Amino acid sequence: MKLARDTWLIFQRQLHLLLRNPVWVFVGVFQPVMYLLLFAPLLKPALNAPTQAEAYKIFVPGLLVLLAIFGGLFQGFGLIAELRAGVIERSRVTPVSRLALLLGRSLRDVVSLLAQAVIITVLALLFDLRVFIGDLLLAYLMLALIALMTSAVSYGVALKVKSEDALAPLMNTVAQPVLLLSGILLPLAFAPGWLQGIARWNPFSWAVDGTRALFNGDIGNDRVWQGLTIITVLAAAGVFWAARQFARSVR
Amino acid sequence: MIETRGLRKSFRSRAGRETKTVEAVRGVDLDVSAGEIFGFLGPNGAGKTTTLRMLATLIEPDGGQATIAGADLLKNPGEVRRRIGYVAQGGSTWDESTAREELVLQARMYGIAKAEAQRRAARALEAFQLTEFADRKCKTYSGGQRRRVEIALGIIHEPKIVFLDEPTTGLDPQSRAHMWDEIRRLRTDGMTVFITTHYLDEADALCDRIAIMDHGEVVAEGTPAELKREISGDVVQVGLDLTAANAVGKLLEGEEYVNRLEPLDEGALRLFVDDGATAIPRILRRIDGAGLDLKSIELHRPSLDDVFLTKTGRSLRES
After folding, report:
1. What is the DSSP string of A174-192?
2. Structural domain boundaries enclosing B215
3. Contact B96 A90 (CB under 8 A)
């Protein structure tokens, strides 16, 4: 129970600091809204969708997965700032659970991602997107797991490299192919066979497919359980690895 | 309260392609009694911080033993953590938090319940005269205020021992004097205080006992008075031109009233003599007789720097 208590302690602190800074809340909402308003209108003609709502069904899930991946991967920067300020070392001399130092932070990232996701979904509803609540909740679960994994990995890498200068190019290098090979912006159905072949090895492409299926009301689609399973396994592996980094360098 | 035997730590550093093993701490034996302010004096890079970080469970020793407040450092670092406080050199507060939030969080990280943590935070804020700024963000604090918050963080769980790594480095003289008072107050409250410093006056004025560290080893240990008493007589320091220093050194080396002669950087010589009042005229006559120019001459009672010089052959001021 110490783990749960300590995790909650760190989570509260991190969330409190996040909410105190309205700039971040604003940026976190502003950017996806821009995508929704300025990019999505191109999609109806581009995707040959019969209605704007159909185009949103394809685009919104992709956008949400994109946010989960990127939002998570760049959380490491905050940790490096904390390392530099001595906050992490201050935690290290206390008997606080080391795993809680990671989980509390990652959980904050998951919650802030879900808040973004809800805002975007509500906005999309105004544009006639329709999705069943059960399907939506399952899609949010997928997003939460993605964010948990990417933020944990980002923290783990941040502890290893300990410098923003190394973290930024590293995360960009990882994020870019992941993004392009996941059919986030445009479905990979348009891709030539070889590209689809490569994308099949990208776990996020399965996650995107699964999330799209859920937004489409197609909960029985194999991609749903496949995507969820893959991401669950990866999230567990990511947390395990990052927790080890924490335990090692935050002994 | 602290007892260490043969505590060792080496680091591997990479310079280009070569990896080099640096022995940062080579076998430190310390005995610190309850309720004293114990000072660790030495130049930067002497291994003070490394030793302190080992004692505070932040890095694992390569070898040796240590018992801290009754808990075994190597076998039971978790228990050591509960019994000690540690205040790092580089700061430990978050710009966007307030002092009160930091204190409550710190207490709760030690497992203290919320209501009690809030009570302790309020008490600590008062004790360190921080109540006025308690709910302002840490980034608005002055250096001295921030350091006080950090000390308060280090003792919020009422540890038996608190480790302070260079607590006054970077503070202006007034804040420094304040900090000394705070540290003495910790002792009055019954805490054992272990500080590192490279300031001689700080070690001299603040510490009940000190250990002088150089190149990863303790080269002297005792009360400041004891250590200075080891050097009998007076110390005369003469300032000369760089070229003259060598000549004068040779000139005075053979004089029977000079017990010991140590050249310093920048053309200064330090002479350990039995009686300064009689030695100075003789030194002056000797230099004058050789037709050499003197820039300065001063006489003082042996200081900790003189202790350091006789133990290591270097002055702490110049290293």
Report:
1. HHHHHHHTTTSSS-GGGS-
2. 2-227
3. no
